[in-house]
Design goal:
mainly alpha; Fumarase C, Chain B, domain 1; two-stranded parallel sheet; elongated
Length: 492
Amino acid sequence: MLIDGKSLDLDGILKVSKDFEKVQLSPMSFKKINQSSKFINKILEEKKIVYGINTGFGKLCNEVIPLESVSELQKNLLLSHAAGTGEPLAEMEVRAAILVRANSLAKGFSGVRKELIEKLLELLNKKIYPYVPSYGSLGASGDLAPLAHIALLLIGKGKIINNGNVVEARPFLKEKGIEYFDKLQAKEGLALINGTAVEAGISSILVSEAKYLLQVAIKSSALSMEALRAKKEAFDPRIQEVRNVLEQRIISDMILKEINGSKLIDSAQKVQDAYTIRCIPQVYGAVLMNLSYIENVLTGEINSVTDNPIVFAENGEVLSGGNFHAEPLAFAMDLFSIILTDLSNMIERRINSLLNPVLSELPPFLTDKFGLHSGLMILQYTVASLVSENKMLAYPASIDSIPVSADQEDHVSMGMNSVLKARKVIQNLRKIIGAELIIAAQGIDFRGSELLGKGTRKTYLKIRKTIPFASSDRIFSYDIDKIEGMILKKEI
């Protein structure tokens, strides 16, 4: 894959972060990168005072650094800012962050050498996994702490994770034949850590996962519709047409495709279904609509210059601004948690309908031996606990701000907290969707799987290959683990 600062997308991030696709810097970006780097040297030669090049950082921006200490300034920046804590980010997440940072630097507005960007790509291509603690970023000035832990490797410091063990980076880099820089040039340390790459990289992975989970959720909801003998009327294309929401029509069409040929749908004597059936196109359509919006935000962000100051070599200027501020990502990922939490809430209510004989006309808790056996009763408890946690996590991190750096950075986005919350929400959602698949399949067995539609029958059979009908009580925790594994492997 060639990176040029403008062509990266979410699929590309997955190819590199998950599938270990090799990456190279596009030759088309060499000219601007070299111009930018040379202009930094010119500033030093002319003894101009420019923030981030020969000054301190944050509140210390008025402290002028002598020429002979400029390289030490950049090293000290990486050392002092590598102050993260908490569980390390996953390898896939760190790889995504490195790729996004390299792609941003490749735009040629950051004043770094081409060799520095290529060194980041070498970490990816040789599968080096930097140790990066989860906490420390406020999402302004970018992801300083986590990016510093990555950047340390470029000067032979920091730690890496090798086969699950945290080890010192320097000997491991030597073993792998990776040379590190003895010195960084002016602005290079700052350019490596001042940006939104960690948030944007992880968010890209999460949105890709959410797009897939929404497809699985459509299949699980269709299977529940079959078990509840739902009506098809609410999915009539004419209803969707008059709403003028494309995503609503898309979801409705997908549901109709799943239940096509069903003998269970419309088989009950009822006037209409509850909202968690009848409003699937409207709610899931809104989820799809907002996922598309979030993906657009991310596509822009991963191809942006997000460090500071920004070097406009062609105009002979270095401008100090705030592109490192992650508020666009913070808002987007708070929205991400909100929409997926509402999705999980809707699923839990359908699960309740399936287990409640008053609502489903199925045996209580989907066992015909109720009393002696509890059936799938406690699966709803587990789902309820996960949904409740998602509701807590859906509280927006972006509305908080704690001023730092002696009030020089007096409004921060808390975007990294938005991302970390979103990661937990999607982990919970995966289990919640899995539980609906298990429970809906159990309900189908009391109706007759031979009556299913074309799509729902395929889903049912995939479930039953791994998870058998529960004719008596068993340890259902194992079933949840199995179905989650199937979802993770994209077998549904």
